[in-house]
Write a structure and sequence with these properties.
Shape: globular
CATH topology of the largest domain: DNA polymerase, domain 1
Helix content: 40-55%
Strand content: 15-25%
Order of helices and strands: EEEHEEHHHHHHHH
Distance between the termini: 48 Å
Number of strands: 5
CATH class of the largest domain: Mainly Alpha
Number of domains: 3
Structural class: alpha+beta
Number of helices: 9
């Protein structure tokens, strides 16, 4: 129903923000991930997720599309509500959630307060196929994915372990998304 809101921040905490637009202040729940992006801004544009329950109508705000996509996927898992999904995105980034699901990293998901072994396993099972089909924000766009895959392949051919190489190259691409295959390999060779 609501896609985004643009306006002035009149109040902000790590859990919520009040955005004034058109003379109305909207109370919007946010994660720490979004808070860190908007905490110093005066005006903001947040993507929204509108939740209607029997007893409440709640807005959740996101700085980027990837965080909102991951939030929606998490809410589709049985036993994960909006507040639990927000807690997860406050503890680990949306990119880290994606990687944990793709790599079956149950311990990473369990590190979030309120997520036990069974819930973490359910998240992986339910979202494993869906997560790769959902558009991501940073490094998983086609050109960068190609560069990433090429660099990982080259490093594995040189004898490095795939998991260590993927972790390092993903971290590099988060900092500098436009690195070439050659640059990725050179930097990885220096560090691994």
């Amino acid at each position: 129903m609501y896609e985004y809101i643009k306006g002035n921040i009149t109040e902000i905490t790590p859990a919520y923000v009040v955005v004034e637009t058109g003379g109305i202040g909207y109370f919007i729940n946010i994660s720490l991930q979004t808070y860190s992006q908007i905490s110093r801004l005066g005006e903001v544009r947040l993507l929204l997720q509108y939740i209607v329950r029997e007893d409440a109508q709640i807005l959740f705000g996101f700085f980027d599309e990837d965080e909102r996509n991951v939030f929606r996927l998490l809410m589709s898992v049985n036993g994960i509500g909006a507040n639990t999904a927000r807690m997860m995105l406050s503890s680990i980034t949306s990119q880290e959630v994606r990687m944990a699901i793709e790599k079956d990293d149950i311990s990473k998901l369990k590190s979030v307060k309120g997520i036990g072994l069974k819930t973490a396993q359910r998240i992986v099972v339910d979202l494993k196929d869906k997560i790769s089909k959902t558009p991501a924000g940073n490094i998983f766009v086609s050109a960068n994915k190609h560069n990433r895959d090429e660099a990982v392949s080259a490093m594995v051919t040189l004898g490095f372990t795939k998991s260590a190489v993927e972790k390092y190259i993903d971290a590099l691409l988060l900092k500098e998304p436009d690195l070439t295959v050659e640059s990725l390999i050179k930097q990885a060779l220096k560090q691994l």
